[in-house]
Amino acid sequence: MLYKYREFINESRQDIDSICQKYNIINYTVNEDGSIDVDGDVDLSNRELIELPLKFRNVSGYFNCSNNVLTSLEGAPSSVDGAFDCSGNGLTSLEGGPSSVSGDFSCSRNKLTSLEGAPSSVDGHFGCSWNELTSLEGGPSSVGGGFYCSSNELTSLEGFPTLFRPTMVINISDSPVKEVYDLFSDLKAIEYINETGCINKDTMEVYYIALLDVWEYSGMEIVKPENIKLRHYTLVY
To answer: Which of 47, 97, 99, 164 has the most CB atoms around it within 10 Å of its CB?
Structure first.
């Protein structure tokens, strides 16, 4: 039995070596569970992959699996010290993706309806544009770079990172909630927008009395109701 187990391990190792050679993956270590750690970069982009060819654990460089036909991130590394890019696939979920990313994270141009499964912290930029998101809930709570989520169907700012640089660049264009954010156009207002509950995403109503609190807390000039023009929401006052 011991001989058969060793033979199985040797065959599995040969398969992994062959796959790594095919995809030009070098400086890797095979773990006991069959996953691999890579000291360097992994580039699996533009390969017409329907699934990741290996089970990754830790990658010290970037991990790029963009522009394939992936529908799942099963096998993706749990931690990436560089950037992680899974954009341009057919993903409907980020489950299985890394829990820690030290660089940028991009999941743009997929079919995501939720950010559940995203890393809790991204040290670089976070991009989820051109998806089918109606909410940012489940996304990272901390982002060190810019936040790009344009061309979605966001109806609230719930789930927006609570930890970010005051100078963060944010892009939420081509989403209904952008017209509410434009009443303030200031990152510090987002926390108050969520805390006051000025947006009712279920009824698509915006409460003017709550907007007053946001302006007050943010130290901004109040906009009169007659000067507020909303296309996607009904202003209630």
So the answer is: 97
Sign of the dihedral through C-alpha 166, 167, 169, 172: positive
**Residues β-bridged to residue 37:** 29
Query: Counting beta carbons within 10 angstroms of the beta carbon of residue 213, is it exposed (0 to 12), middle (13 to 18) or buried (19 or more)?
Result: middle
Instruction: Please check whether residue 183 lies inside any domain of the structure.
Output: no
Judge contact between 116 and 92, C-beta under 8 A: no
Residue-wise pLDDT tens digits, 34-76:
999 999 999 999 999 999 999 999 999 999 999 999 999 999 9
Q: How many residues does the chain have?
A: 237
Prediction pTM value:
0.90
Contact 32, 53 (CB under 8 A): no
Burial class for 208, CB neighbours closer than 10 Å (0-12, 13-18, 19+): middle
Q: What is the DSSP string of 18-66?
A: HHHHHTT--SEEE-TTS-EEESS-EE-TTS--SS-SS-EEEESS-EE--
Bridge partners (DSSP) of residue 80 are: 59, 101
Structural domain of 192: 188-237
Residue 94 has pLDDT above 80, yes or no: yes
Q: What mean pLDDT value characterizes the chain?
A: 93
**Statement to judge: residues 160 and 207 lie in one domain:** no
Concatenated DSSP letters for 173-195? TTSTTHHHHTTT--HHHHHHHHH
